[in-house]
């Protein structure tokens, strides 16, 4: 069980402490039931209730209240700590997962597992804790009944075992139906995503808009029918459980006296105790429905963990100075890579190609859409691990253990870049330095760097790219990757990028790789590489700088 797996991760001592406190609270509750029955019996025979009895009641009640409150708080703390550990474990695996594996898993699956499923479980934890307390209470009530009448105890235990088995069989069927609802909800989310991501297209085409809406409505009807069906089965299960408890009370009152003599003195105590169990049983049943959902949700989380484990790459040991600092030449030999479907069908491939990169040069990559430019950028920076081939830095092969150290040489702004609101990893940068670069990029009237973060990221794409360029320059890496950075800039900043920023990086000994379609600026590079369907073509003779070190291909 996934819930049991969650609870057993880590030290068992906190859970043992919680179990002890919950059992003490349940024991106090059961003691209250026994005392109430005793007082009722005293009143029935017209005996006086002395102050000692009142004080005893108050003492037991105080014990129960304190233990119950402590158990709920401590259990919630321990379980929330377990969930926090689960979140950290999953995110820790995500951050060490290769990019391509993460793309294949899908962002939707990641967010659903880390946010939706775990958050839902976190919100329901108090209900589970209360149900655990109810379960302990039922155990102590049964022990109380055993003290009153062993035959009654045995009959009730047999009936509870029978009812529990029937309930469990129905719940298993209900769990299967719940899993189908999750699949339908996922399909609905995909359709809703199509509405959002394709909003511009459907606003331009009424027929497409209507067709997508009909598809959404059909899925909604399907989901509604499944939810109503599960709800009806859950109501039936709840009614069955409640009816079963009342049937037990009926057995205690009407059936047991027929078979056991001397039962008259204890019947009302046993009946009162059995009736008192209705509330705890209802609590347990309600929690069981939520636990079924939690099982499915945690199953998704653990499935994600299994995928991440299969794709995981152990991070290399941290180093104070990169082993590749001050490199002179990088060689990529016979590199191949392909995108594959889950059925292992190749949908795009690049290579084999051989390419070299020298310190301090500017290399432009050009090519049409779908030619593989972004894929090559990710291969050059080892965000994608090649299927075959070798990478050498100054003649030394980049081993699997050194891949992260190799990646640390790169600062990149891809076309789908993410802009963080804080300078993560740059804790020592002076705010005035950041503010000066903001002014240089003519963003001072749009954004400021305050309290260790940018005041806003609500900017145009071109302005966000300028802010990303500031961050990449502050990172001060060896190699800079720009994936069509100038595409969203006006003519002024496009000219600034090619005529001033790139030459400045070159003067500082930085290497620049830029994907571009701006043929007016091809004279700004030392080499230009044309890509076509994953193959490289050297056009160094067309670039102002010329030079060797170009690619080869089969």
Automatic annotation (TrEMBL):
Keywords: ATP-binding, Membrane, Nucleotide-binding, Transmembrane, Transmembrane helix, Transport
Cellular component aspect of the GO annotation: ATP-binding cassette (ABC) transporter complex
GO molecular function, one term: ATP hydrolysis activity
SMART domains: AAA
ABC transmembrane type-1 domain segment(s): 19-255
Topology within the bilayer: Multi-pass membrane protein
Stretches assigned to the ABC transporter domain: 330-552
GO BP, sorted A to Z: peptide transport
Parts of the chain that traverse the membrane: 15-37, 49-67, 125-146, 152-168, 243-260, 266-287
Parts forming coiled coils: none
Subcellular location field: Cell membrane
PANTHER family: ABC TRANSPORTER ATP-BINDING_PERMEASE PROTEIN YOJI, HEAVY METAL TRANSPORTER
Xref: NCBIfam families: cyc_pep_trnsptr
Name by which UniProt lists this protein: Cyclic peptide export ABC transporter
Organism listed in the record: Roseospira navarrensis
């Amino acid at each position: 069980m996934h819930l049991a797996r969650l609870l057993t991760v880590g030290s068992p001592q906190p859970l043992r402490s919680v179990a002890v406190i919950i059992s003490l609270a349940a024991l106090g509750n059961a003691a209250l039931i026994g005392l109430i029955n005793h007082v009722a019996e005293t009143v029935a025979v017209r005996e006086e209730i002395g102050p000692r009895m009142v004080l005893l009641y108050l003492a037991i009640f105080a014990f129960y209240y304190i233990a119950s409150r402590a158990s709920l708080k401590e259990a919630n703390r321990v379980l929330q700590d377990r969930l926090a550990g689960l979140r950290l474990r999953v995110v820790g695996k995500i951050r060490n997962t290769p990019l391509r594996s993460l793309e294949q898993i899908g962002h939707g699956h990641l967010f659903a597992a880390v946010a939706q499923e775990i958050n839902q479980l976190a919100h329901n934890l108090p209900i589970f804790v209360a149900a655990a307390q109810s379960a302990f209470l039922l155990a102590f009530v049964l022990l109380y009944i055993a003290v009153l009448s062993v035959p009654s105890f045995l009959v009730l235990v047999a009936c509870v075992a029978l009812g529990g088995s029937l309930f469990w069989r129905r719940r298993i069927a209900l769990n299967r139906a719940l899993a189908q609802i999750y699949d339908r909800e996922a399909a609905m989310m995909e359709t809703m995503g199509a509405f959002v991501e394709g909003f511009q297209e459907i606003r331009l085409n009424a027929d497409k808009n209507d067709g997508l809406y009909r598809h959404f409505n059909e899925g909604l009807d399907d989901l509604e029918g499944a939810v109503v069906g599960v709800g009806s089965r859950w109501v039936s299960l709840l009614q069955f459980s409640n009816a079963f408890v009342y049937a037990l009370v009926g057995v205690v009152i009407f059936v047991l006296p027929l078979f056991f003599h001397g039962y008259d003195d204890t019947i009302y105590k046993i009946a009162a105790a059995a009736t008192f169990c209705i509330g705890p049983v209802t609590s347990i049943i309600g929690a069981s429905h939520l636990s079924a959902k939690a099982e499915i949700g945690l199953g998704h989380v653990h499935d994600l963990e299994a995928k991440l484990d299969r794709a995981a790459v152990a991070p290399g040991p941290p180093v104070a100075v990169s082993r590749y600092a001050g490199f002179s030449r990088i060689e990529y030999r016979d590199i191949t890579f392909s995108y594959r479907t889950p059925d292992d069908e190749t949908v795009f491939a690049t290579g084999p190609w051989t390419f070299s990169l020298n310190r301090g040069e500017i290399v432009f990559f050009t090519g049409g859409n779908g030619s593989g430019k972004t894929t090559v950028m990710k291969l050059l920076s080892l965000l994608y691990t090649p299927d075959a081939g070798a990478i050498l830095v100054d003649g030394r092969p980049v081993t699997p253990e050194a891949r992260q150290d190799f990646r640390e040489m790169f600062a990149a702004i891809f076309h789908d870049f993410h802009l963080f609101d804080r300078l993560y990893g740059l804790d020592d940068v002076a705010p005035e330095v950041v503010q000066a670069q903001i002014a240089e990029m003519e963003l001072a009237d749009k954004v400021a760097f305050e309290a260790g973060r940018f005041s806003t990221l609500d900017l145009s794409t071109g302005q966000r790219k300028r802010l990303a360029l500031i961050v990449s320059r502050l990172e001060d890496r060896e190699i800079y990757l720009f994936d069509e950075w100038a595409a969203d800039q006006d003519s002024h900043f496009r000219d600034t990028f090619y005529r001033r920023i790139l030459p400045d990086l070159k003067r500082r000994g930085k290497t620049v790789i830029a994907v571009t379609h701006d043929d007016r600026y091809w004279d700004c590079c030392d080499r230009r590489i044309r890509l076509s369907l994953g193959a490289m073509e050297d056009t160094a003779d067309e670039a102002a700088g010329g030079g060797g070190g170009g690619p080869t291909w089969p």
